[in-house]
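subagent[fold] <- orchestrator: predict structure for attached chain, return tokens only, no commentary.
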Amino acid sequence: MKPISLILTSMAAVATLQLSARPVMPPLFTDNMVIQQQTDAPIWGTAKAGKKVTITASWNQTTVSTTADANGHWRTSLRTPQAGGPYTITISDGQKITLKNVMVGEVWLCSGQSNMEMPIDGWSRVNNYEQEKEEANQYSNIRLLQVRKNISPTPLNEMETNLGGGWQVCSAKSVKEFSATGYFFGREIHKYRNVPVGLIDASWGGTFIEPWTSAEALRQHPDMTEALNDVSKLPTDKTERENIYLNQLNQWKQQERSLDPGYEGEKPLWAMTSFDDSQWPEMTIPVQWEKAGLTNYDGAAWLRRTIDIPASWAGKEVKLSMGGLVDDIDFTYFNGIQVGQTNSYGEKRDYTIPSRCVKAGRSTLAVHLIDTGGDGGIYSPADQLYLECRGERISLAGNWHYKATTPMASLPRIPVNNTSSPNQVTVLYNAMINPMVGFAIRGTIWYQGCNNEHKGYQYRELLPLMIRDWRHKWGYNFPFYIVQLANYKQLQTEPGDDEWAEVREAQAMAAQHVENSGLACLIDIGEAGDIHPRNKQEVGRRLGLVARAKTYGEQLEYAGPTYNGYQIEDKAIRICFTHADGLRTSDGGPLKGFAIAGSDHRWHWANARIEGQTVVVSCPEVASPVAVRYAWHVNPLCNLQNAAGLPCVPFRTDDWPGLSINNHNAN
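subagent[fold] -> orchestrator:
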């Protein structure tokens, strides 16, 4: 359901259109916008049906005209000059509106999941974020447009934006919650090309690639048929979709409780004060439970804590606060009585404990918590975890007993929230990409892949499919530059197969084989303990190198050593590379990260040495080597780079089936 403010804004726009017949422009066309240079840039809006609409740009004072159709829609194009400004664009159907402070320059679309969404200073922070915000005030010719998160089962023509609505001049305030990767990339283009830069941020954390792809494109992939059919059956009305979801979720929760040993029918045995949890292990809350004993666990668990209630609280209502970082679905009990229940992560848990339940002395707070995927547990800040009665508080931070019960793999498939879940096929394309199709852009940068980690082989197909889909919709083969997944999780100790390596391989294959594409490799700047590495400045710089070389024709090195073939030489294998001037190690030590195998497919750490623009790999335990891998792990040992300091792109010479091939074939 839309916020009241948005409904009122829409009503006001309709009233203005009806009463004054003044043209109305989508948020792509506002004050402070950047329009792509040296092209026929489409421009569109609405006016009174049948009205003649004229558009005049101040850079040449040439007027173009068109006529609004029976539904009031009109569309035409403006021939844009070389980069410059500020200019104005005047749109008139008898009454005028004027877009002010318009710049002509380079427009880039920035899309993907959370590492593209990650802001300068918001739910996460980049390195030196305060300094970066202050410096942003110097770049008034960088302009920012952030698409508001939204989903739709059918393509939309209109979209909503954040940051105050429409385009914003870059400043410490406007850049604060904008895509850090997008901003730092745009800053590189602005600095080295000396042109205004417009950045459109259309990203959503925790999303797969399938929601970002149109239904027309996904129909070409046999794995997508069932999911597309499911989405096509959804009502367009959000309220209807919400009711369907809630009915499905209630049925699922009943099934989940029926499988949980903490319940006897509907009775929560493990929530009772009399239940003995003394043999359960403890965790110190707030904490993500993966870091406190439930490693890699998705599913249901019970958390219990004993509290001494003061005599002064007896018979009075008590507020229970657990903050918003409760992951994901909770059933919360006080002395065996349910006092609250919330269905999703991120919603604030403020529950009221009825006065009849509050007695002096020993009481039990029990939470039946279901982590549906990713992180789990209660990890709101400690000052948000408390009981409160008439201004007095008892902290709930500290030791809780816990017991895992039913893993998600043993539960029925959880229903998808069809009103808010971004992970249904095509729904993000429909709501966040389709409304801007045709808006003149120079190209796209893309940072996504973590969510597709279990289907790297399928990603080989889906990423090129989406690239070609967007280009087909826009009508031209704009540059598409891919950020390869950074290193993450526990450092590699042994060679072998790895799902993240397979996704990286799919990303590199798309960059190599899809026309006008490129890759920014981040295998050396990730963080083992954080899936959102904070050095987004270097991400933007490396993307900028690719664009400066491949889009703008600068003569510079833009990629690290890239695998280009091999030769078997007796008991060794020689690996050939492109982008290999000045091969060296990043730390000055021996080469790390190379593994070698014979026909038995058993991998061994290899000895490796640099010879010119090649690397020779061998191992005493492999007398007849047939294959080599490098940096083949979620967080690999690796240190090969070129003279430009850019890391070698992870690779393998073999095509042996890996971990995700079975997931792909199982569809």
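orchestrator: received. Logging for downstream: Residues 1-20 have pLDDT under 50 and may be disordered. The two ends are 34 Å apart (CA to CA).
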